[in-house]
Amino acid sequence: MKNFFKKYCSLILTSLFLLSCVPFQNSYKVLAADNKKYSITDLNLSADSVYAFEDNGLAKFKKDGLYGIMDTNGTIILAPQFTSISSFKNGYAKVSKGSKLGVINSKGTIIIQPQFKDIGDFSQNGVASVNTGSSWGIINRFGKMIIEPKFDTVYNFENGFIRVRKDNKYGFLDSSGNILSNCIYDNAYNFQENYAAVKKGASWGLIDTKGTFTAFSFDEIKSPILGTIPIKKGDNWGLSDMKGNIILQPEYKDISALNKNLIKVCNGGKYGVINKNGIKILNVEYDSITPNENGLSLIYKNKIYGVIDSLGKIIVQPQFDWIDNFQEGKAIVESHGTYGFVDTEGKVTFKSEFDKIYAFREGLARVQKNNKYGFINDSGDIVIQPTFNSAYDFNEGYAAIEKNTGSSSIEDSDDQSLISKYLKWGYIDRQGSTFISYDFKSASSFNNGCALILKDGKCSLIKNHDMKFIPNSTITDSFKTWKIKFSKSLQNKTTKNSDDDIINDINMTMTNNIKITDSSGKYKDVSFTFESPDTIIIAPPYNGYKVNETYTITVLSNGKYNIRDTEGNTLKPSIIKIPFSVTN
User: Fold this and answer.
1) Which helix (H) or strand (E) holds 50?
2) Contact 478, 509 (CB under 8 A)
3) H or E element at residue 535
4) N or C: which end of the chain has fewer CB within 10 A?
């Protein structure tokens, strides 16, 4: 299957310059559109609020304070009846009626009517914990109670297992809800690296995935990290190997994993970094050290933040009052009220003219200035002037934005009729050109070519036809490297402006136009390599892809700096979606 998908993916993408759009057909009334690339369908549905579609093809909407669900054809799957509906996770979403919680699946089917006080997230194998008010039990994907409520506490699923507690004793269940160990342990940590540290009587030891207990002769141990065991003697922690041989004599007040190369240590309320051999990488002098998904970590000292790489090298000395997570190779930073961004090499760009800068998405970052919104590129240049009253981030090459279509006096007006008449939502592309005119009371972001809009209290569905969906395929390699081959040699010349600043190159083009998201729409921090003349390589995230998760590769060609061949041709259609699932 792995080789088949690579071949199939290549066959599709080698034809991208030749594909044409297929007209959208449905049984609803299709309104006139000012662009042949999309259609607007009146759903004949009253609504107060609309929300973006999720990757499973469902979107919630709100009417009279209650939420319902519809699909990408505009069909009502669940009529408005819930006081809340969460985002889907592992194929399930929580719904509530008053204070009671239930669950729907990815098809919008109610599998558990709202009846529980609390519900945990579903595991990848489709089981979840539920709280009746006095105790916790376990249900399966069909809503059947497979373990009757009897636990005092149920912790989150971690690494395929869930820790439970009853009468101050601990046990474990696997991700299918089977009992690995009854509640017989006096203390326990979560599973890590196929082992969990537990206390049995006066002895600490490890249990494996079959429940076999092996005792260790230390005052306390934790579950393994990086193939080592945190061990405690007296009040201090050190490290041993998996057989109990000491690697690092206990000298720290706490030890925990930082990433797949490093271990975080603590003394006197301060933190530092060592490797798995106990060698010091960073002195114990930081107030906190927090990992990012991409292997980078934020360091915090004297109320300012810096950044270290996956091996503990400081790439940005502490200097920021605040720093966001990295996305598309950049993290938004703030220092003394001035916003900017830093890249993974430590280069900092401050933009003092903006009141706020948001995370980069599809090569552009939303900015705010004098209560108006616009967008900058990854060089910090304004691509779309801050002229909009409100704006969402770009998704699939378009952003929903709100614009004042009347006079400037409306801005400070309390006249709701004027505000409703002139403040309208529409959509722009990544060059700032109008994609869909400003005519709506509200609008959602696009996802999988669909968006919802409201006008005069009525809901309509927009479908973007300039898209191609590749059938979902399955891989078993969590560190899969994708190779995307195009039909012609790609344009890879570096372009500079009059000040000799780079405004476009192949690295920028790849980062801005190719992304991988998980089933919740969250960006995965992948990296790209241009393999001349016609191939792009996508390296996996730092921690790999999660098993039993579905991801989507999106390739765009509707911005200023597109993927082009040497003759200047761009991709046809302009949005390609390539989903894949990861299994054992």
Assistant:
1) strand 49-50
2) no
3) strand 535-539
4) C
Residues ≥6 apart with Cβ < 8 Å to 500: none
Answer yes or no: CATH 2.60.120 is held by domain 321-387. no
Q: Is the dihedral of CA 128, 55, 398, 46 positive or negative?
A: negative
Give the residues across from 174 on adjacent strands: 161
Q: How many helices (H) and strands (E) does the chain have?
A: 3, 59
Residue 581 near residue 474 (C-beta atoms within 8 A): yes
Selection from 296, 380, 364, 356 nearest residue 511 by Cα: 364
What is the dotted CATH code of the domain comprising 2-21+468-582? 2.60.40.1220
- Give the domain ranges of the chain: 2-21+468-582, 27-52+395-465, 217-313, 321-387
Pairwise CA distance, residues 225 & 166, whole Å: 27
Quickly count: other Cβ atoms within 10 Å of residue 407's Cβ. 10
The Cα–Cα gap between 476 and 545 comes to 10
Burial class of residue 521 (count of CB atoms within 10 Å of its CB; 0-12, 13-18, 19+) = middle
Contact between 214 and 206 under an 8 Å Cβ cutoff? The reply is yes
pTM, to two decimals: 0.88
Provide the token pair at 542.
């730092």
What is the H or E stretch that residue 13 is in? helix 2-13
Q: Which two tokens stand for residue 104?
A: 């729907």
The residues, any chain, with a CB within 8 Å of residue 512's CB and separated by 6 or more, are 328, 362, 363, 364, 377, 378, 556, 559, 561
Averaged pLDDT in 10-residue chunks for the chain of 584 residues: 39 35 26 64 96 95 98 96 95 95 96 96 90 95 94 92 97 93 97 97 97 97 98 98 97 97 97 97 98 93 97 97 94 97 94 96 96 94 95 97 82 72 93 94 96 96 94 93 91 70 77 92 92 92 91 90 86 91 89
